[in-house]
Amino acid sequence: MYLGFDISTQSVKAIVVNENLEKLHEATVNFDTDLTEFRTCNGVNRDERNPKIVTAPPLMWIKALDIVLEKLRLDGVIFEQILGISGAAQQHGSVYWKRNARHTLQNLDPRNFLHEEFAFAFSISHSPIWMDSSTIKFCTKLEEKIGGPEKLSKLTGSRAYERFTGSQISKIYHTRRETYNITERISLVSSFACSIFLGDYASIDYSDGSGMNLLDLREKFWSVECIDGITEPGSDLITKLGQPVPTETIQGNISPYFVERFGFNPECKILSFTGDNPSSFAGMCLGSDDIAVSLGTSDTVFLSLKKLPEEGFPEGHILTNPIASSEEYMGLLCFKNGSFTRERIKKAIAEDSWTLFNELLDSTPRGNFGNIGFYYDLQEILPKVNAGDHRFNREGLKLLRFSGLEIEIRALIEGQFLAKRVYAEKIGCQISKDTRVLATGGGSINHKILQVLSDVFNASVYIQDTMNAADLGACYRLKHALQEGSMLKFSEIVGSKHGFSLCCVPSPDSSEIYDPMVQRYIELEQSIQLLSKTST
Questions:
Q1: Nearest to residue 494, comparing CAs of 511, 508, 509, 477?
Q2: Which residues of 226-265 are buried (b: 16+ CB within 10 A; e: fewer)?
Q3: Cα(259)–Cα(35) distance, integer angstroms
Q4: pLDDT tens, residue by residue, 244-277
Q5: Using an 8 Å Cβ cutoff, are 217 and 210 in contact?
Q6: What is the pTM assigned to this prediction?
Q7: What is the spatial distance between Cα 24 and Cα 11, in angstroms, rounded to a whole number?
Protein backbone atom coordinates (compact mmCIF):
# COMPACT_ATOMS: atom_id res chain seq x y z
CA MET A 1 0.00 0.00 0.00
CA TYR A 2 0.99 3.64 -0.54
CA LEU A 3 0.20 6.61 1.71
CA GLY A 4 -0.18 10.10 0.27
CA PHE A 5 -0.73 13.41 2.07
CA ASP A 6 -1.97 16.84 1.02
CA ILE A 7 -1.15 19.73 3.37
CA SER A 8 -3.39 22.35 1.81
CA THR A 9 -4.41 25.83 2.95
CA GLN A 10 -7.46 24.68 4.90
CA SER A 11 -6.79 21.06 5.82
CA VAL A 12 -4.55 18.01 5.90
CA LYS A 13 -5.82 15.06 3.89
CA ALA A 14 -4.44 11.54 3.66
CA ILE A 15 -5.22 8.74 1.24
CA VAL A 16 -4.15 5.08 1.24
CA VAL A 17 -4.19 3.14 -2.04
CA ASN A 18 -3.34 -0.44 -2.89
CA GLU A 19 -0.92 -1.75 -5.50
CA ASN A 20 -3.57 -1.22 -8.17
CA LEU A 21 -3.84 2.44 -7.10
CA GLU A 22 -7.37 1.91 -5.82
CA LYS A 23 -8.40 4.03 -2.83
CA LEU A 24 -8.75 2.03 0.39
CA HIS A 25 -8.83 4.68 3.13
CA GLU A 26 -8.88 8.43 3.49
CA ALA A 27 -8.98 10.91 6.35
CA THR A 28 -9.14 14.70 6.70
CA VAL A 29 -8.45 17.25 9.40
CA ASN A 30 -9.90 20.74 8.90
CA PHE A 31 -7.89 23.47 10.59
CA ASP A 32 -10.80 25.80 11.39
CA THR A 33 -13.14 23.18 12.86
CA ASP A 34 -10.79 20.50 14.22
CA LEU A 35 -8.00 22.72 15.54
CA THR A 36 -9.86 25.76 16.83
CA GLU A 37 -7.07 26.61 19.31
CA PHE A 38 -5.04 28.05 16.42
CA ARG A 39 -7.82 30.56 15.65
CA THR A 40 -7.54 30.34 11.89
CA CYS A 41 -10.10 31.54 9.39
CA ASN A 42 -10.06 29.45 6.22
CA GLY A 43 -6.85 27.87 7.51
CA VAL A 44 -4.82 31.07 7.90
CA ASN A 45 -4.08 33.93 10.28
CA ARG A 46 -4.30 37.51 9.01
CA ASP A 47 -2.46 40.37 10.63
CA GLU A 48 -5.17 42.77 11.87
CA ARG A 49 -2.86 45.76 11.35
CA ASN A 50 -1.77 44.73 7.86
CA PRO A 51 -4.13 42.36 5.99
CA LYS A 52 -1.45 41.73 3.37
CA ILE A 53 0.44 39.65 5.98
CA VAL A 54 -0.97 36.10 5.94
CA THR A 55 0.57 33.23 7.92
CA ALA A 56 -0.12 29.79 9.36
CA PRO A 57 1.56 28.02 12.33
CA PRO A 58 3.71 24.96 11.51
CA LEU A 59 2.61 23.40 14.81
CA MET A 60 -0.96 23.39 13.49
CA TRP A 61 0.14 21.38 10.45
CA ILE A 62 2.04 18.98 12.73
CA LYS A 63 -0.90 18.53 15.07
CA ALA A 64 -3.10 17.82 12.06
CA LEU A 65 -0.68 15.07 11.02
CA ASP A 66 -1.00 13.61 14.54
CA ILE A 67 -4.78 13.51 14.23
CA VAL A 68 -5.00 12.29 10.64
CA LEU A 69 -2.71 9.34 11.41
CA GLU A 70 -4.92 8.42 14.39
CA LYS A 71 -7.97 8.62 12.14
CA LEU A 72 -6.36 6.26 9.64
CA ARG A 73 -5.47 3.84 12.42
CA LEU A 74 -9.06 3.88 13.70
CA ASP A 75 -10.21 3.27 10.13
CA GLY A 76 -8.27 0.02 10.10
CA VAL A 77 -5.09 0.95 8.25
CA ILE A 78 -2.26 -1.49 9.04
CA PHE A 79 0.72 0.84 8.82
CA GLU A 80 3.20 -2.03 8.61
CA GLN A 81 1.88 -2.72 5.10
CA ILE A 82 2.65 0.80 3.84
CA LEU A 83 5.52 0.58 1.32
CA GLY A 84 6.09 4.30 0.91
CA ILE A 85 4.95 7.78 1.91
CA SER A 86 4.91 10.99 -0.07
CA GLY A 87 2.79 14.07 -0.23
CA ALA A 88 1.86 17.46 -1.56
CA ALA A 89 1.72 20.83 0.17
CA GLN A 90 0.62 24.38 -0.51
CA GLN A 91 3.35 26.05 -2.54
CA HIS A 92 5.65 28.96 -1.64
CA GLY A 93 5.16 28.83 2.15
CA SER A 94 8.36 28.61 4.19
CA VAL A 95 9.22 27.00 7.54
CA TYR A 96 12.14 28.18 9.67
CA TRP A 97 13.84 25.54 11.81
CA LYS A 98 15.63 26.85 14.88
CA ARG A 99 19.25 25.97 15.56
CA ASN A 100 19.52 22.35 16.85
CA ALA A 101 16.11 21.41 15.37
CA ARG A 102 17.82 18.67 13.40
CA HIS A 103 18.70 17.00 16.70
CA THR A 104 14.99 17.15 17.60
CA LEU A 105 14.03 15.54 14.29
CA GLN A 106 16.53 12.73 14.78
CA ASN A 107 15.56 11.99 18.39
CA LEU A 108 11.77 12.04 18.56
CA ASP A 109 10.24 10.34 21.60
CA PRO A 110 7.48 7.94 20.44
CA ARG A 111 5.72 8.31 23.80
CA ASN A 112 4.77 11.88 22.91
CA PHE A 113 2.59 13.47 20.26
CA LEU A 114 4.42 15.05 17.34
CA HIS A 115 3.26 18.56 18.24
CA GLU A 116 4.72 18.15 21.72
CA GLU A 117 8.07 17.11 20.34
CA PHE A 118 8.28 20.10 17.97
CA ALA A 119 6.95 22.76 20.37
CA PHE A 120 10.25 24.67 20.37
CA ALA A 121 11.70 23.65 17.00
CA PHE A 122 10.93 26.77 14.97
CA SER A 123 12.54 30.19 14.95
CA ILE A 124 9.36 31.66 13.42
CA SER A 125 6.11 30.43 14.94
CA HIS A 126 3.88 31.62 12.08
CA SER A 127 5.06 30.73 8.58
CA PRO A 128 4.42 33.12 5.67
CA ILE A 129 2.25 31.35 3.10
CA TRP A 130 1.17 31.81 -0.51
CA MET A 131 -1.61 34.28 0.34
CA ASP A 132 0.86 36.82 1.75
CA SER A 133 1.37 39.93 -0.39
CA SER A 134 3.48 42.09 1.94
CA THR A 135 6.85 41.84 0.18
CA ILE A 136 6.59 44.09 -2.87
CA LYS A 137 9.74 46.10 -2.12
CA PHE A 138 11.78 42.90 -1.84
CA CYS A 139 10.40 41.71 -5.19
CA THR A 140 11.45 45.00 -6.76
CA LYS A 141 14.94 44.67 -5.28
CA LEU A 142 15.35 41.15 -6.68
CA GLU A 143 14.20 42.09 -10.18
CA GLU A 144 16.54 45.09 -10.19
CA LYS A 145 19.45 42.86 -9.13
CA ILE A 146 18.78 40.36 -11.95
CA GLY A 147 18.05 42.95 -14.63
CA GLY A 148 14.27 43.03 -14.77
CA PRO A 149 11.27 40.66 -14.66
CA GLU A 150 11.98 39.13 -18.09
CA LYS A 151 15.49 38.05 -17.10
CA LEU A 152 14.34 36.74 -13.73
CA SER A 153 11.55 34.71 -15.36
CA LYS A 154 13.98 33.27 -17.89
CA LEU A 155 16.33 32.25 -15.06
CA THR A 156 13.86 30.94 -12.47
CA GLY A 157 10.58 30.43 -14.39
CA SER A 158 8.76 33.42 -12.89
CA ARG A 159 9.11 37.12 -12.36
CA ALA A 160 9.26 38.20 -8.71
CA TYR A 161 6.02 37.57 -6.84
CA GLU A 162 5.16 38.69 -3.32
CA ARG A 163 4.07 35.20 -2.26
CA PHE A 164 7.18 33.45 -3.57
CA THR A 165 9.59 32.09 -1.00
CA GLY A 166 12.54 34.19 -2.13
CA SER A 167 10.88 37.50 -1.31
CA GLN A 168 9.54 36.11 1.97
CA ILE A 169 13.03 35.05 3.01
CA SER A 170 14.31 38.46 1.94
CA LYS A 171 11.79 40.19 4.19
CA ILE A 172 12.87 38.10 7.18
CA TYR A 173 16.57 38.59 6.40
CA HIS A 174 16.26 42.36 6.22
CA THR A 175 13.71 42.95 9.00
CA ARG A 176 14.36 40.11 11.47
CA ARG A 177 18.08 39.48 11.18
CA GLU A 178 18.49 37.87 14.61
CA THR A 179 15.71 35.42 13.81
CA TYR A 180 17.33 34.64 10.46
CA ASN A 181 20.70 34.08 12.14
CA ILE A 182 19.34 31.49 14.59
CA THR A 183 17.58 29.66 11.76
CA GLU A 184 19.40 26.41 10.96
CA ARG A 185 17.31 25.33 7.98
CA ILE A 186 14.63 26.84 5.75
CA SER A 187 12.11 24.39 4.29
CA LEU A 188 9.17 24.69 1.97
CA VAL A 189 5.93 23.36 3.45
CA SER A 190 6.45 20.24 1.32
CA SER A 191 10.01 19.53 2.48
CA PHE A 192 9.00 20.43 6.05
CA ALA A 193 6.34 17.70 6.01
CA CYS A 194 8.76 15.29 4.36
CA SER A 195 11.28 16.05 7.12
CA ILE A 196 8.76 15.02 9.80
CA PHE A 197 8.42 11.53 8.32
CA LEU A 198 12.10 11.25 7.42
CA GLY A 199 13.37 12.21 10.88
CA ASP A 200 15.93 14.53 9.33
CA TYR A 201 16.02 17.59 7.10
CA ALA A 202 14.50 16.62 3.75
CA SER A 203 15.85 18.23 0.60
CA ILE A 204 13.71 20.64 -1.37
CA ASP A 205 12.64 18.99 -4.64
CA TYR A 206 13.11 20.55 -8.07
CA SER A 207 9.39 21.02 -8.81
CA ASP A 208 8.43 22.83 -5.63
CA GLY A 209 11.83 24.53 -5.52
CA SER A 210 11.13 26.14 -8.88
CA GLY A 211 8.35 28.17 -7.22
CA MET A 212 10.77 30.19 -5.10
CA ASN A 213 12.45 32.66 -7.53
CA LEU A 214 15.73 31.08 -6.45
CA LEU A 215 16.28 27.89 -8.46
CA ASP A 216 18.11 28.14 -11.79
CA LEU A 217 15.84 26.01 -13.99
CA ARG A 218 18.65 25.04 -16.35
CA GLU A 219 21.33 24.25 -13.76
CA LYS A 220 18.92 22.78 -11.18
CA PHE A 221 20.72 24.58 -8.36
CA TRP A 222 20.29 27.81 -6.41
CA SER A 223 21.17 30.87 -8.44
CA VAL A 224 23.93 32.74 -6.59
CA GLU A 225 22.77 35.92 -8.29
CA CYS A 226 19.24 35.46 -6.93
CA ILE A 227 20.51 34.46 -3.49
CA ASP A 228 22.56 37.67 -3.31
CA GLY A 229 19.59 39.60 -4.68
CA ILE A 230 17.33 38.67 -1.77
CA THR A 231 20.01 38.76 0.93
CA GLU A 232 23.64 39.77 0.39
CA PRO A 233 26.98 37.98 -0.07
CA GLY A 234 27.89 35.96 3.02
CA SER A 235 24.28 35.35 4.12
CA ASP A 236 24.85 31.57 4.20
CA LEU A 237 21.40 31.09 2.63
CA ILE A 238 22.51 28.28 0.31
CA THR A 239 23.54 26.26 3.39
CA LYS A 240 20.21 26.97 5.07
CA LEU A 241 18.32 25.81 1.96
CA GLY A 242 20.38 22.66 1.38
CA GLN A 243 20.97 20.80 -1.88
CA PRO A 244 17.86 20.55 -4.11
CA VAL A 245 17.07 17.10 -5.52
CA PRO A 246 14.96 15.61 -8.33
CA THR A 247 11.32 15.24 -7.37
CA GLU A 248 11.60 11.50 -8.03
CA THR A 249 14.19 11.07 -5.23
CA ILE A 250 13.67 8.55 -2.44
CA GLN A 251 15.02 10.57 0.51
CA GLY A 252 15.39 7.65 2.92
CA ASN A 253 13.52 5.32 5.24
CA ILE A 254 10.85 6.39 7.69
CA SER A 255 11.81 7.87 11.07
CA PRO A 256 12.01 5.35 13.96
CA TYR A 257 9.37 7.47 15.75
CA PHE A 258 6.67 6.24 13.35
CA VAL A 259 7.92 2.66 13.51
CA GLU A 260 7.58 2.58 17.29
CA ARG A 261 4.45 4.71 17.71
CA PHE A 262 2.36 3.57 14.73
CA GLY A 263 3.92 0.29 13.68
CA PHE A 264 5.29 1.32 10.28
CA ASN A 265 7.78 -1.02 8.62
CA PRO A 266 11.30 0.41 9.18
CA GLU A 267 11.92 -0.11 5.44
CA CYS A 268 9.01 2.17 4.48
CA LYS A 269 10.41 4.65 1.94
CA ILE A 270 9.97 8.42 2.04
CA LEU A 271 9.69 9.96 -1.42
CA SER A 272 10.24 13.70 -1.86
CA PHE A 273 7.10 15.67 -1.09
CA THR A 274 6.35 18.38 -3.63
CA GLY A 275 3.99 21.30 -4.18
CA ASP A 276 0.26 20.78 -4.51
CA ASN A 277 0.18 21.97 -8.12
CA PRO A 278 3.01 19.70 -9.34
CA SER A 279 1.44 16.81 -7.42
CA SER A 280 -1.95 17.47 -9.01
CA PHE A 281 -0.17 17.53 -12.37
CA ALA A 282 1.15 14.03 -11.60
CA GLY A 283 -2.28 12.93 -10.36
CA MET A 284 -3.85 13.89 -13.69
CA CYS A 285 -1.12 12.50 -15.99
CA LEU A 286 -1.48 15.41 -18.39
CA GLY A 287 -1.14 14.69 -22.09
CA SER A 288 0.24 17.09 -24.68
CA ASP A 289 -3.27 18.28 -25.70
CA ASP A 290 -4.60 18.57 -22.15
CA ILE A 291 -5.21 21.67 -20.07
CA ALA A 292 -5.75 21.13 -16.35
CA VAL A 293 -7.91 23.53 -14.39
CA SER A 294 -7.96 23.18 -10.61
CA LEU A 295 -10.82 25.00 -8.88
CA GLY A 296 -9.83 25.54 -5.26
CA THR A 297 -8.94 28.21 -2.74
CA SER A 298 -6.89 29.62 -5.57
CA ASP A 299 -7.64 28.52 -9.13
CA THR A 300 -4.79 27.16 -11.23
CA VAL A 301 -4.22 26.19 -14.84
CA PHE A 302 -1.33 23.97 -15.89
CA LEU A 303 -0.02 22.16 -18.94
CA SER A 304 3.01 20.16 -20.05
CA LEU A 305 6.06 21.75 -21.70
CA LYS A 306 8.82 19.72 -23.35
CA LYS A 307 11.34 22.55 -23.15
CA LEU A 308 11.85 26.03 -21.80
CA PRO A 309 10.86 28.97 -23.99
CA GLU A 310 13.69 31.00 -25.45
CA GLU A 311 12.39 34.24 -24.00
CA GLY A 312 11.35 35.15 -20.48
CA PHE A 313 7.98 34.19 -19.11
CA PRO A 314 6.67 37.29 -17.32
CA GLU A 315 3.08 36.12 -16.91
CA GLY A 316 2.57 32.84 -15.11
CA HIS A 317 5.20 30.32 -14.13
CA ILE A 318 7.34 27.49 -15.38
CA LEU A 319 8.18 24.70 -12.96
CA THR A 320 10.07 21.49 -13.49
CA ASN A 321 7.84 18.57 -14.43
CA PRO A 322 7.31 16.45 -11.27
CA ILE A 323 7.44 13.15 -13.17
CA ALA A 324 10.47 14.09 -15.30
CA SER A 325 12.01 16.83 -13.19
CA SER A 326 15.49 16.71 -14.71
CA GLU A 327 14.40 17.18 -18.35
CA GLU A 328 10.84 18.49 -18.75
CA TYR A 329 8.70 21.35 -17.47
CA MET A 330 5.16 22.41 -16.70
CA GLY A 331 3.47 25.76 -17.25
CA LEU A 332 1.35 27.05 -14.39
CA LEU A 333 -1.00 29.99 -14.02
CA CYS A 334 -2.27 30.91 -10.56
CA PHE A 335 -5.37 33.02 -9.88
CA LYS A 336 -5.58 34.00 -6.23
CA ASN A 337 -9.33 34.71 -6.24
CA GLY A 338 -10.90 31.28 -6.61
CA SER A 339 -13.38 29.53 -4.34
CA PHE A 340 -13.40 32.29 -1.69
CA THR A 341 -14.75 34.71 -4.28
CA ARG A 342 -17.34 32.24 -5.61
CA GLU A 343 -18.43 31.58 -2.00
CA ARG A 344 -18.70 35.31 -1.30
CA ILE A 345 -21.03 35.91 -4.26
CA LYS A 346 -23.06 32.81 -3.40
CA LYS A 347 -23.60 34.08 0.15
CA ALA A 348 -24.36 37.64 -0.94
CA ILE A 349 -26.90 37.04 -3.70
CA ALA A 350 -27.85 33.34 -3.78
CA GLU A 351 -28.88 32.88 -0.14
CA ASP A 352 -25.70 30.84 0.40
CA SER A 353 -27.23 28.08 -1.73
CA TRP A 354 -25.42 26.38 -4.61
CA THR A 355 -28.78 25.17 -5.89
CA LEU A 356 -30.06 28.73 -6.25
CA PHE A 357 -26.66 29.86 -7.56
CA ASN A 358 -26.81 27.26 -10.33
CA GLU A 359 -30.42 28.11 -11.18
CA LEU A 360 -29.51 31.77 -11.61
CA LEU A 361 -26.44 30.84 -13.66
CA ASP A 362 -28.56 28.66 -15.94
CA SER A 363 -31.21 31.34 -16.39
CA THR A 364 -28.88 33.64 -18.35
CA PRO A 365 -27.69 33.05 -21.92
CA ARG A 366 -24.09 32.36 -22.86
CA GLY A 367 -22.31 35.67 -23.29
CA ASN A 368 -24.45 37.29 -20.55
CA PHE A 369 -25.86 39.98 -22.90
CA GLY A 370 -22.32 41.31 -23.29
CA ASN A 371 -21.85 41.99 -19.56
CA ILE A 372 -18.43 41.11 -18.12
CA GLY A 373 -17.31 41.14 -14.48
CA PHE A 374 -13.98 41.08 -12.65
CA TYR A 375 -14.10 40.04 -8.98
CA TYR A 376 -11.08 40.27 -6.68
CA ASP A 377 -11.41 39.70 -2.93
CA LEU A 378 -7.62 39.77 -2.68
CA GLN A 379 -4.91 41.52 -4.64
CA GLU A 380 -4.81 39.38 -7.80
CA ILE A 381 -1.77 37.79 -9.39
CA LEU A 382 -3.02 37.52 -13.00
CA PRO A 383 -3.58 40.32 -13.69
CA LYS A 384 -1.68 42.21 -11.00
CA VAL A 385 -4.48 44.42 -9.69
CA ASN A 386 -5.83 45.52 -6.31
CA ALA A 387 -8.84 43.98 -4.58
CA GLY A 388 -12.23 45.17 -5.81
CA ASP A 389 -15.12 44.34 -8.13
CA HIS A 390 -15.47 45.76 -11.66
CA ARG A 391 -18.59 45.45 -13.80
CA PHE A 392 -18.96 46.42 -17.47
CA ASN A 393 -21.90 46.41 -19.87
CA ARG A 394 -21.79 45.45 -23.55
CA GLU A 395 -20.68 48.97 -24.52
CA GLY A 396 -17.71 48.76 -22.14
CA LEU A 397 -19.16 51.26 -19.65
CA LYS A 398 -18.38 50.62 -16.01
CA LEU A 399 -21.39 49.91 -13.78
CA LEU A 400 -21.94 50.08 -10.03
CA ARG A 401 -24.17 47.02 -10.23
CA PHE A 402 -25.79 44.75 -12.79
CA SER A 403 -29.51 44.81 -13.44
CA GLY A 404 -30.12 41.31 -12.08
CA LEU A 405 -28.69 38.73 -9.69
CA GLU A 406 -28.46 36.16 -12.47
CA ILE A 407 -26.31 38.53 -14.56
CA GLU A 408 -23.98 39.02 -11.57
CA ILE A 409 -23.46 35.29 -11.15
CA ARG A 410 -22.80 34.59 -14.82
CA ALA A 411 -20.46 37.60 -14.99
CA LEU A 412 -18.46 36.12 -12.11
CA ILE A 413 -18.12 32.63 -13.60
CA GLU A 414 -17.57 33.70 -17.22
CA GLY A 415 -15.08 36.34 -16.10
CA GLN A 416 -13.04 33.83 -14.09
CA PHE A 417 -12.85 31.41 -17.03
CA LEU A 418 -12.18 34.08 -19.63
CA ALA A 419 -9.14 35.08 -17.54
CA LYS A 420 -7.89 31.49 -17.56
CA ARG A 421 -8.26 31.18 -21.32
CA VAL A 422 -6.57 34.54 -21.96
CA TYR A 423 -3.50 33.70 -19.90
CA ALA A 424 -3.29 30.09 -21.11
CA GLU A 425 -3.12 31.36 -24.69
CA LYS A 426 -0.50 33.94 -23.70
CA ILE A 427 1.90 31.19 -22.62
CA GLY A 428 1.51 29.30 -25.87
CA CYS A 429 -1.52 27.10 -25.29
CA GLN A 430 -3.27 26.37 -28.59
CA ILE A 431 -6.86 25.20 -28.29
CA SER A 432 -7.76 22.66 -30.97
CA LYS A 433 -10.35 19.98 -31.66
CA ASP A 434 -8.19 17.54 -29.66
CA THR A 435 -7.99 19.76 -26.58
CA ARG A 436 -9.34 18.34 -23.33
CA VAL A 437 -9.89 20.40 -20.20
CA LEU A 438 -9.32 18.29 -17.09
CA ALA A 439 -11.11 19.76 -14.08
CA THR A 440 -10.17 19.02 -10.50
CA GLY A 441 -10.38 20.64 -7.07
CA GLY A 442 -13.42 21.24 -4.87
CA GLY A 443 -15.19 23.35 -7.50
CA SER A 444 -15.15 20.50 -10.02
CA ILE A 445 -18.19 18.91 -8.35
CA ASN A 446 -20.37 21.71 -9.75
CA HIS A 447 -21.26 20.63 -13.28
CA LYS A 448 -23.13 23.87 -14.05
CA ILE A 449 -19.92 25.83 -13.51
CA LEU A 450 -17.99 23.29 -15.58
CA GLN A 451 -20.38 23.78 -18.50
CA VAL A 452 -19.36 27.45 -18.60
CA LEU A 453 -15.72 26.32 -18.52
CA SER A 454 -16.38 24.03 -21.50
CA ASP A 455 -18.10 26.80 -23.44
CA VAL A 456 -15.44 29.46 -22.76
CA PHE A 457 -12.61 27.14 -23.86
CA ASN A 458 -14.70 25.54 -26.62
CA ALA A 459 -13.41 22.18 -25.44
CA SER A 460 -14.81 19.13 -23.71
CA VAL A 461 -14.38 19.02 -19.93
CA TYR A 462 -13.46 15.82 -18.08
CA ILE A 463 -13.53 15.16 -14.35
CA GLN A 464 -11.58 12.71 -12.25
CA ASP A 465 -13.23 10.14 -9.99
CA THR A 466 -11.51 11.75 -7.01
CA MET A 467 -11.25 15.48 -6.29
CA ASN A 468 -7.99 14.91 -4.42
CA ALA A 469 -5.57 14.92 -7.34
CA ALA A 470 -2.73 16.24 -5.14
CA ASP A 471 -2.60 13.39 -2.62
CA LEU A 472 -3.47 10.86 -5.32
CA GLY A 473 -0.56 12.24 -7.36
CA ALA A 474 1.70 11.51 -4.40
CA CYS A 475 0.63 7.86 -4.50
CA TYR A 476 1.14 7.66 -8.27
CA ARG A 477 4.64 9.10 -7.90
CA LEU A 478 5.36 6.60 -5.14
CA LYS A 479 4.48 3.59 -7.27
CA HIS A 480 6.61 4.95 -10.11
CA ALA A 481 9.60 5.70 -7.84
CA LEU A 482 9.50 2.31 -6.09
CA GLN A 483 9.67 0.28 -9.33
CA GLU A 484 13.37 -0.50 -8.96
CA GLY A 485 15.12 -1.20 -12.24
CA SER A 486 11.97 -0.58 -14.26
CA MET A 487 12.29 1.38 -17.50
CA LEU A 488 8.53 1.88 -17.75
CA LYS A 489 7.26 5.42 -18.16
CA PHE A 490 5.13 7.06 -15.50
CA SER A 491 1.97 6.75 -17.64
CA GLU A 492 2.67 3.05 -18.24
CA ILE A 493 2.95 2.33 -14.52
CA VAL A 494 -0.07 4.39 -13.55
CA GLY A 495 -2.07 2.92 -16.44
CA SER A 496 -5.72 3.95 -16.72
CA LYS A 497 -6.16 4.65 -13.01
CA HIS A 498 -5.93 8.38 -13.62
CA GLY A 499 -8.86 8.10 -16.06
CA PHE A 500 -11.23 11.01 -16.43
CA SER A 501 -14.88 10.77 -17.39
CA LEU A 502 -16.56 13.16 -19.80
CA CYS A 503 -18.61 15.80 -17.99
CA CYS A 504 -19.43 18.57 -20.48
CA VAL A 505 -19.15 19.31 -24.18
CA PRO A 506 -19.11 22.86 -25.55
CA SER A 507 -22.29 24.35 -26.96
CA PRO A 508 -22.33 24.65 -30.78
CA ASP A 509 -22.14 28.45 -30.66
CA SER A 510 -19.35 28.65 -28.04
CA SER A 511 -16.64 29.85 -30.41
CA GLU A 512 -18.93 32.44 -31.97
CA ILE A 513 -19.80 33.87 -28.54
CA TYR A 514 -16.57 33.63 -26.58
CA ASP A 515 -13.84 34.31 -29.15
CA PRO A 516 -14.90 38.00 -29.38
CA MET A 517 -15.37 38.13 -25.59
CA VAL A 518 -11.75 37.10 -25.10
CA GLN A 519 -10.59 40.23 -26.94
CA ARG A 520 -13.05 42.41 -25.04
CA TYR A 521 -11.86 40.88 -21.77
CA ILE A 522 -8.24 41.76 -22.60
CA GLU A 523 -9.16 45.38 -23.32
CA LEU A 524 -11.26 45.79 -20.17
CA GLU A 525 -8.58 44.13 -18.05
CA GLN A 526 -6.04 46.66 -19.30
CA SER A 527 -8.29 49.49 -18.16
CA ILE A 528 -8.53 47.92 -14.69
CA GLN A 529 -4.75 47.57 -14.52
CA LEU A 530 -4.32 51.25 -15.36
CA LEU A 531 -6.82 52.15 -12.64
CA SER A 532 -5.01 49.91 -10.16
CA LYS A 533 -1.65 51.55 -10.92
CA THR A 534 -3.01 55.06 -10.46
CA SER A 535 -4.61 54.16 -7.12
CA THR A 536 -1.48 52.47 -5.71
A1: 477
A2: bbbbbbeeebebeebbbebbbbbbbbebbbebbbebbebb
A3: 26
A4: 999 999 999 999 999 999 999 999 999 999 999 8
A5: yes
A6: 0.81
A7: 20
